[in-house]
């Protein structure tokens, strides 16, 4: 089914909530933005550019995510934001609040992964770029969103002031060969999730993370073009198929709903069993 036909503005579990999704133009971010919009949320789509990556797998990638949402009767705008640039993150949170008067949900999905290599051949520049976007960028947007949440009353319907879902990785849980700095950056995201959740549970703010396994997106497309790597990825994934963006989006949506109101500080692996062990 095309993602175009999946977006809808009919009343849903997140009706009129305001959500920011970073890295919304492609892959999981796009699937998450469309899925939240289907539940009635108003979406600030944030990315480096509004066009989807052309090496991605979406059937309708010629249409920007926010346009797919509005074409289907939903409410969405695009805001350019480089998660490696702190001032653009500050602007993003301010933009969402000035556009829709509040912020209910932040999805920190944008991330940088670089093609596989041994740790010894990684560079200082790679460390700064990966940590800057995945680690520092996530920390800044979380902090700014929490500051905004603290200005808002506890919503009597949702029972919280706001929700954050970070997209970490199975590589932040188990060591994955030739992904050292990326794995360290995602471990930082996962631990930041737990620590911030601990500090702000008393404030009625839920903070969780989803840790995807191998998912077919633009980011992982080089892996999906190499039969030897596909074989390795399947070998490490107990479930008989690899992941699709909607597998992640479904869980993110659940974590944003009122049903998930007593879940906080959790890193939920959505990985076809990747982090459970190596199947026979
Ligand atoms: N694909 C996988 O197998 C996999 C597995 C585990 C975790 N992840 C994580 O999932 C998240 C989404 O990745 P994806 O696989 O959907 O990738 P993707 O390439 O399909 O989409 C990523 C989006 O993020 C945007 N982006 C990249 N850098 C950015 C920046 N500095 N600021 C703002 N936006 C930026 C890109 O433009 C793109 O639209 C990432 O955090 C990634 O690390 C991916």
TrEMBL record:
Superkingdom to which the source organism belongs: Eukaryota
Q: Which UniProt keywords apply?
A: NADP
Species the sequence originates in: Lepidopterella palustris CBS 459.81
List the Pfam families: adh_short_C2 (PF13561)
Q: Does the keyword Protein transport apply?
A: no
The name under which this protein is listed is Putative short chain dehydrogenase
Report the CDD domains cross-referenced here.
Answer: SDR_c
Taxonomic lineage from the root: Eukaryota, Fungi, Dikarya, Ascomycota, Pezizomycotina
Q: To which protein family does this belong?
A: Belongs to the short-chain dehydrogenases/reductases (SDR) family.
* Database matches in Gene3D superfamilies: NAD(P)-binding Rossmann-like Domain
* SUPFAM superfamilies, per the entry: NAD(P)-binding Rossmann-fold domains
GO terms assigned for molecular function: oxidoreductase activity, acting on the CH-OH group of donors, NAD or NADP as acceptor
Q: Which residues form a coiled coil?
A: none
């Amino acid at each position: 089914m095309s993602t175009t036909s999946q977006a809808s503005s009919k009343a849903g579990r997140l009706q009129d909530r305001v959500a920011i999704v970073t890295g919304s133009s492609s892959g999981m971010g796009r699937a998450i933005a469309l899925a939240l919009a289907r539940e009635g949320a108003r979406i600030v789509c944030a990315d480096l550019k509004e066009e989807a990556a052309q090496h991605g797998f979406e059937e309708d990638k010629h249409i920007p995510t926010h346009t797919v949402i509005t074409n289907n009767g939903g409410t969405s705008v695009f805001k350019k934001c480089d998660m490696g640039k702190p001032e653009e993150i500050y602007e993003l949170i301010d933009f969402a609040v000035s556009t829709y008067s509040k912020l209910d949900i932040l999805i920190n999905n944008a991330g940088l992964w670089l093609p596989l290599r041994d740790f010894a051949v990684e560079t200082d520049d790679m460390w700064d770029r990966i940590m800057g976007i995945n680690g520092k960028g996530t920390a800044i947007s979380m902090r700014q969103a929490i500051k905004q949440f603290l200005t808002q009353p506890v919503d009597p319907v949702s029972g919280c002031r706001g929700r954050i879902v970070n997209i970490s990785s199975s590589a932040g849980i188990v060591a994955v060969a030739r992904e050292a700095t990326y794995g360290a950056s995602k471990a930082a995201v996962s631990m930041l999730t737990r620590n911030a959740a601990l500090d702000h549970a008393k404030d009625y703010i839920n903070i969780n993370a989803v840790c995807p396994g191998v998912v077919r997106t633009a980011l992982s497309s080089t892996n999906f073009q190499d039969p030897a790597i596909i074989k390795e990825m399947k070998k490490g994934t107990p479930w008989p198929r690899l992941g699709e963006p909607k597998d992640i989006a479904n869980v993110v949506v659940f974590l944003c709903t009122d049903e998930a109101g007593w879940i906080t500080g959790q890193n939920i692996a959505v990985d076809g069993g990747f982090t459970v062990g190596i199947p026979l």
